[in-house]
Specification:
The protein is of the alpha/beta class and 436 residues long. The chain has 15 helices and 16 strands. It folds into three domains: 131 residues, Aspartate Aminotransferase, domain 1 (Alpha-Beta Complex), CATH 3.90.1150.10; 234 residues, Type I PLP-dependent aspartate aminotransferase-like (Major domain) (Aspartate Aminotransferase, domain 2, 3-Layer(aba) Sandwich); 38 residues, no CATH class. A seven-stranded mixed beta sheet has the order 2-10-9-8-5-3-4, with helices on both faces. A hairpin with an 8-residue loop joins strand 15 and strand 16. It binds pyridoxal-5'-phosphate (PLP).
Length: 436
């Protein structure tokens, strides 16, 4: 039987729910993509995207392509056949980006990461330190491994490279983290960023981008890899994208403008705080389900569990895909599958993009029903645990303080009569604590 009434709860880790505002913005007749009006829209969107990437020095180059296209663009533009790159192995997506590099004739060195743990930047740095000739041209790092639901430490990886003074380019895939939790291109010294439309940006799949800085642009001038569709040199003039190779993905820019409006209206730091709140509630639910044995969080490291999706391991002898099928067919809750070696072992709950508390709670309730129907051992009452997590006074995040200060430094300080961040932290906590 298929759940045939009411909303489908779409909890995939990408693509994600597309807000009506974005859908409506995209539903319009074609326009001339060489017209001044479209070019102004493109320029505005690419400029505003820099705010989400937290870059002043870099700029984005968009493609009519899924994220795999941006992967191709990164390798085709930066390297020559035989170049060596270092890839921390985090899961299916890191492995497939590495495969792209191999297929362009690069030599890939893999830094292994213990299963269910975050990348240890020092362990990756040991590969660099062992490379006395400085032959490794780049570190290719996935911030949020969508296959496992784990976040990996970008700032710390950059710091480890800096400590060695190693000159490699730093490339970061943010496809399932951008717009969901913090990423800082300039501050973290990222030379190339991979981004996609269909996750935190809440657009349909089909547009991706690379954001690059001056070092990456320079590397592209010397690179000898063959390239045509992805060639930045044909698309960029004076540090900004001025054309596409072929027809521009017109509707995506109307959608992107609507999505950036939504992100800016909510406030990027508030978007991150919402993702954290929903992720915390999901984790509280999963931990409750596993409190008497049975299902488990895939991430063994609480800090490394992603704010954009949660992977749930089912015990040996049980089938995660059966849970997914029941949850989708009987209860209308669509979940992500385990990929490659994780198929059947985990299911993935996406909680990124256009999502709120009741959507999440409804989905968790459907999953709990499916766990019972599939006979997977779990403790009942996970949704109550999620609600308790949502009820708890919200911890004040540093990001939130920063965003309040950025918005209104004078007034916030004056009204609270406080100057320092620490004092503001205390004031915000006190403001929030009574009967929330
Ligand atoms: N990188 C990451 C981290 C992803 O999650 C994905 C897709 O989910 C990709 C790259 C590939 O993107 P696409 O499927 O849009 O080609």
């Amino acid at each position: 039987m298929t759940a045939s009434r009411g909303w489908q709860f779409f909890m995939h880790p990408g693509p994600t729910n597309i807000p009506h505002r974005v859908l409506q913005a995209m539903a319009r007749p074609a326009v001339d993509f060489m017209s001044p009006a479209f070019q102004a829209l493109r320029d505005r969107c690419l400029e505003r995207l820099k705010g989400v990437l937290k870059t002043q020095k870099g700029f984005a180059i968009a493609y009519a392509a899924s994220g795999h296209g941006a992967w191709d663009a990164s390798i085709a533009n930066l390297f020559s056949p035989g170049d060596k790159v270092l890839v921390p192995r985090t899961g299916y997506f890191a492995e497939n980006w590495a495969k792209t590099a191999t297929q362009y004739g690069l030599e890939v060195v893999v830094a292994d990461t213990p299963e269910r743990r975050a990348v240890d930047p020092e362990a990756v740095a040991r590969h660099l330190a062992a490379d006395a000739k400085g032959a490794i041209k780049a570190v290719m790092f996935v911030q949020n491994e969508t296959a496992t639901g784990m976040r990996h430490p970008v700032a710390e990886m950059r710091a480890a490279m800096d400590r060695l003074g190693y000159p490699a380019l730093f490339m970061v895939d943010t496809i399932s983290s951008l717009g969901s939790y913090d990423f800082r291109m300039d501050e973290w010294g990222v030379d190339l960023v991979i981004g996609g439309s269909q996750k935190g940006l809440m657009l349909p799949p089909g547009m991706s981008f690379t954001a690059i800085n001056a070092r990456a642009w320079e590397a592209a001038q010397a690179a000898r890899n063959p390239r045509r569709y992805w060639d930045w040199r044909g698309m960029v003039e004076e540090g900004r994208q001025v054309r596409f190779c072929g027809t521009a993905p017109i509707p995506y820019f109307y959608g992107l403008e609507a999505s950036l409006d939504m992100i800016e209206e909510e406030g990027l730091e508030n978007v991150f705080a919402r993702h954290r709140r929903l992720a915390d509630a999901t984790r509280a639910c999963v931990r409750h389900w596993g409190s008497e044995g049975g299902v488990e969080m895939w991430s063994l490291d609480a800090e490394a569990a992603s704010d954009s999706l949660t992977s749930v391991l089912v015990p040996a002898g049980h089938d995660a895909d059966l849970v997914r099928t029941i949850s989708s067919d009987r209860y209308g809750v669509a979940l992500g599958r385990g990929l490659a070696t994780l198929q059947g072992r985990i299911f993935r709950i996406g909680h990124m993009g256009d999502l709120n508390e009741p959507m999440l709670l409804g989905a968790l309730a459907g999953i709990e029903l499916a766990l019972a129907d599939a006979g997977v051992p779990h403790a009942r009452g996970g949704v109550e645990a999620a609600m308790d997590s949502l009820r708890a006074p919200r911890p004040v995040q540093f990001a939130e303080i920063q965003s309040r200060l950025d918005r209104d430094p004078g007034a916030t300080g004056e009204r609270l009569g406080k100057e320092s961040r620490e004092a503001l932290y205390e004031a915000l906590t006190a403001e929030r604590s009574p009967e929330r």
